[in-house]
Amino acid sequence: MFRTHTCGELSPKNLNENVSLCGWVQTIRDKGFMIWIDLRDRYGITQLVFDEERSSKELQEQARTLGREFVIRIEGKVIERSSKNPKIPTGEIEILVEKLTILNESQLPPFTIEDETDGGEELRMKFRYLDIRRNPVKNKLIFRHEIAQKVRNYLSNEGFIEIETPVLIKSTPEGARDFVVPSRMNPGQFYALPQSPQTFKQLLMVGGMDKYFQIVKCFRDEDLRADRQPEFTQIDCEMAFAEQEDILNIFEGMTKMLLKDITGKDFQNFPRMTFAEAMKKYGNDKPDTRFGMQFAELNDLVKGKDFKIFDDAELVVGINVENGAEFTRKQIDELTDWVKRPQIGASGMVWIKFQNDGILTSSVNKFYSEEDLKKIGEKFGAKAGDLMFIMSGETQKVRTQLSALRMELGNKLGLRKPNEFAPLWIVDFPLLEWNEETARFHAMHHPFTSPKTEDIPLLETHPENARANAYDLVLNGNEIGGGSIRIFNETLQSKMFDLLGFSKEEAENQFGFLMNAFKFGAPPHGGLAFGLDRLVAILDGNEVIRDYIAFPKNNSGRDVMIDAPSEIGKEQLDELNINLKL
Amino acid sequence: MFRTHTCGELSPKNLNENVSLCGWVQTIRDKGFMIWIDLRDRYGITQLVFDEERSSKELQEQARTLGREFVIRIEGKVIERSSKNPKIPTGEIEILVEKLTILNESQLPPFTIEDETDGGEELRMKFRYLDIRRNPVKNKLIFRHEIAQKVRNYLSNEGFIEIETPVLIKSTPEGARDFVVPSRMNPGQFYALPQSPQTFKQLLMVGGMDKYFQIVKCFRDEDLRADRQPEFTQIDCEMAFAEQEDILNIFEGMTKMLLKDITGKDFQNFPRMTFAEAMKKYGNDKPDTRFGMQFAELNDLVKGKDFKIFDDAELVVGINVENGAEFTRKQIDELTDWVKRPQIGASGMVWIKFQNDGILTSSVNKFYSEEDLKKIGEKFGAKAGDLMFIMSGETQKVRTQLSALRMELGNKLGLRKPNEFAPLWIVDFPLLEWNEETARFHAMHHPFTSPKTEDIPLLETHPENARANAYDLVLNGNEIGGGSIRIFNETLQSKMFDLLGFSKEEAENQFGFLMNAFKFGAPPHGGLAFGLDRLVAILDGNEVIRDYIAFPKNNSGRDVMIDAPSEIGKEQLDELNINLKL
Hints:
- The structure is a homodimer.
- Chain A is an alpha+beta fold.
- The first copy, chain A, is built from 17 helices and 23 strands.
- An eight-stranded mixed sheet of chain A has the order 6-9-10-22-21-20-17-11, sandwiched between helices. A five-stranded mixed beta barrel of chain A has the order 1-2-3-5-4.
- Helices cover 29% and strands 24% of the residues of chain A.
- Chain A folds into three domains: 12-104, CATH 2.40.50.140; 138-272 and 424-548, BirA Bifunctional Protein, domain 2, CATH 3.30.930.10; 291-415, Gyrase A, domain 2, CATH 3.30.1360.
- The radius of gyration of chain A is 30 Å and the shape is globular.
- In chain A, a hairpin with a 2-residue loop joins strand 2 and strand 3 (44-51).
- The longest helix of chain A has 23 residues, at 135-157.
- Chains A and B meet through helix 3, helix 4, strand 6, strand 7 and strand 8 of A and helix 3, helix 4, strand 6, strand 7 and strand 8 of B.
- Strand 23 of chain A pairs antiparallel with strand 23 of chain B, so a sheet runs across the interface.
């Protein structure tokens, strides 16, 4: 046995006990007559002491050979500390070392192993194993484990069965690009890595396994944006003989349980909002409802006053910033520049100030009288001291632009508090979205999503207006999960494939096995998937998912620590019946 | 809500309740005046009844349109059954149906959905979603889930953290073949799928995460033998600051917990046996100790009696079959033919019968007197009525042959009882094994396995004799897990790579990142991995792992249900910068 205790557990209760500890040398303070060493392991830090009076000369000399991050084992006695450190649990004791064993030496690490390190992102990724020694990274990985365990226990207790679906599956062109795997035993053929276990979980429903879940790796070969990973983890679920309400209840219960564990507070039933309402009120299908600034639509108030920009716009819409009248002209100009950046793409912005003296003034005083401004202010519910921003243009675009401004203001004004949680269901998503580029409909959720029964006739006349039995769970402005009730009828599924522009052959080739399965008594079913990486980050008051992944890849899909991907040998390529195309 | 209850839960307690149930039509019995339908879901079967007196004509007619595996929803009243079925939990009640909704029709399934089906393996795999409706398959998947949950909870309670390691990693030529994944974003480069998370878990130890586990998919592109899957699941674990004893204790505790849950019995501490002893006593490093027939080595008794075959043999060794004297001459001949098959490869076999009359006779009476035979019998501890089989040859070969015979006899004589469990640790494995083909040493466990401290000097002189701190857990003749204490010292690891014939460049290229990590304070560590598929099968009294995998692949690595692997398009190949080599 290497150790009797960890470095995080000794207290005055253990005084005078002989103990052995193992860990890494965090700091060494050598005052000549006395040497203190902070010994660190996963559980905490314990102070070791060597002194002229009580330690042998050899032992002191040995202690002086130590360096940062050396791995040592010590034996010694727990004694009371003269100057106590109330900041750490072991701060009342220290160990008078009697025996010191150096288990391994260490080169000087390339960055400090401290909560605040001097190492940049790239260096920390290259030496991720050293980064993981730091509390912030270590704690995030432990937090992730705890969330995953709680999810598994919750779902198991609800009668869900975790079933592993295969990783080596069949390539389907729908959605993002697949990663593929050449098959040596089947020359010229390839497996694909799953973008999700979607079809397998539906087959499990056909198989009668009416409550399925899996915490599972999924893969997408996308051009990586910041904080997108080619491999990511889903909490994937499906239920048979369940309606939307049953599914929302189960996963609302799960999320409440997690939120209660984290905050200690009981959460009320989550609010629900239709997609249409979310777009109207927040310009966004994943609104952060921790703060207000709901949109006010102003067409009826602002048009016909000779302000051409508003007159020409499909939609004039704004938000009210409480106490925003304090914004300086410079701050307002900066925000205006911000929305005019190409990433946002607005052509400009109108402001109205509700001064503390009760007078309303604006950047468009030329067109709007104070009476006009007052009516607009009333629409916003603005009060003295507030500031309104108004944008205009094509409905969908202006909503997106104003939503970006709203989020920016939320960040700037500190309204997005990391330890506050505002969960929200978004329901009644559109079934389809029109893709300009390909000039065809795409499934908004996926091709297996069921239209609302009352909207099925619309598929013949106005498919773009058909709503789906699809839902997202939004937390603090992030989509943490989403799902739908699936089509379980072969005929309706065929019609969907038609609408999505699949030929019979394509549909047969890609989803034939699912369509076949539906011929043998498919039950009604639906489900959802949570993104575990994101869920964990947001529950921990963070939005950077990379921190919650032990060994993440960078934006080029590289693991810089192990240097992957990498070249493989000619022999291996030959065996796989492929050539490089150079 | 589709249902108020499942098909497995109604009992006389629910009499007269109005309920709704959903499920599949298992059987229909139509007696004219009465129709009975067995309705099945994941939880059981409930009998539905329609009759002339109490059901409307329309309802009866509707019931007559149903076929096997139709998916229906019914509403009705729980009533007492006149002829009760004590075999099923719901056997005392039935439902007088008031409303019937056909949720989906079904074609006639290609095999019967019964515990004993008429479907062959291939057909069942092609329609695996129907196979999963059958109790034996469904129950195995649920059993697997339960074992995995218990393992996770046990390890979490022991302070282990489940950490997900990446699936897209770097190809390393050691061991079996890697599956590789061409990287679109890094042309000419490939990821590999992990054969195990070995190096990552060691890096986590360097990272201070001193108790790691993961239930994780692993991949090996091997020529598939029966019951080998290209993707399989491991319970993967690693501990730092732990000695072999600590590791064995944790995982013995885990296995005891599982065995107790299954059998209701407390298991004593698992016996331990060295590799050398296992080879000597059972000819095998994973002996099934549910039955005896330990080997007896006979060189000192049989040599020098002019029986050339024994005189020339390196080892003469046998087993004693209790009460085997009843074997007919035909049975003995069959066994002799069996060991002479090319798969076993023995040249023959000698038998000695300890007749019930106390006389010993043998197939080599010409060379051995009854006195000689008596001494041999004593060595075996044989008694009247027993039968001894003796084989001879080169030590390793003859042990393997005799071990095969022992297992065959164990099977034939019903000594391998599925509901009995004989766990056993095998320890002190050799560090290296000589590979004739490549004329170099291979690591018996893997290249990171630590030699026993006292055997390190042997690395210079007789590396083949060095023992490793390596251990396997054996259950009922199957290796269910194995592991080792790892090398954590850079110098010793370099020496190992030398011994294994890696050049400095190869070692650097393949394991450089691990060697680098070891420079920054690697703690002593070790671990092990259990094969989940096999563990679950054996705990369930079975040896066919395929049954415990929801969607297994066949012996050509194909998923015949989804028809994978399959061809991919030219465009996709182009994007990946590869060509097919035809």
